[in-house]
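Students often ask why we bother encoding 3D structure as a string. The short answer is that it lets us treat folding as translation between two languages. Here is a chain of 242 residues written in the first language.
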Amino acid sequence: MGEDSFAPTWRPARQKTAAAEIVTQIREALFAGRLAPGDFLGSDRSMSQQFGVSRVTMRDALRALETTGIVEIRLGAHGGVWVAQPNPQHFAEALAVQLKLAAISRQELIDAQSGIEVIAAERAAAAATPEDIARLRDALAGVIAERGKGQAFSEATLRFHLSVFEASHNRALLALFKAIAQVWMMYLPVATREIEERVISYYSNLADAIAAKDSSTAGALVAAFLAERRRAGRALENPRTK
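And here it is in the second language, the structure alphabet:
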């Protein structure tokens, strides 16, 4: 593969803000559809020539693009710069950091999760495969097995919620949930036995609704449970996952 196998037309970058402008141009090309995952952009040498900047400046821009997950830099004889493949986990981790820096409150997280989990449950009921249902049942069994074990129970509930979002087959919803779930790690109260039993009952009913492909019931179960949590003003289940 030659250095210029993919050669869009770039504007010469101004020296004062050259690296930032290069980042902007490549981002704009990506969002405009002129670049796609897997496109080869060239080597840092050929790209520095295209942008009319030094290789040091070009490398600064490429490091910024790599950090944000826009490009992949490969080293060696067949190295170079490629437009990165999609990585929703990268997005989830970046969003989680921003949510934590913004000191998002527990109530804000509950509201945000309410907005996406009802849809995820409805989509899961419509789109779940037999394999998804099996994973959901396994996750439920894991929650039951960790009953009375404090943090282990909390972690098991997270895996159940994750399995619901995975069963929705909606990557955007899944990435958003992963970000929210990471922020929940700030809150670690131990659920009482009464709360654990209510959570297990809720999960069991939700798993049954998804398995039965009953979207309306699945969505209603989630909406009712999260509404109860909002009214209570505290985590009824586990603030790491809800």
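Translate back mentally: The beta strands are 40-42, 71-74, 80-83. Keep this in mind for the problem set.
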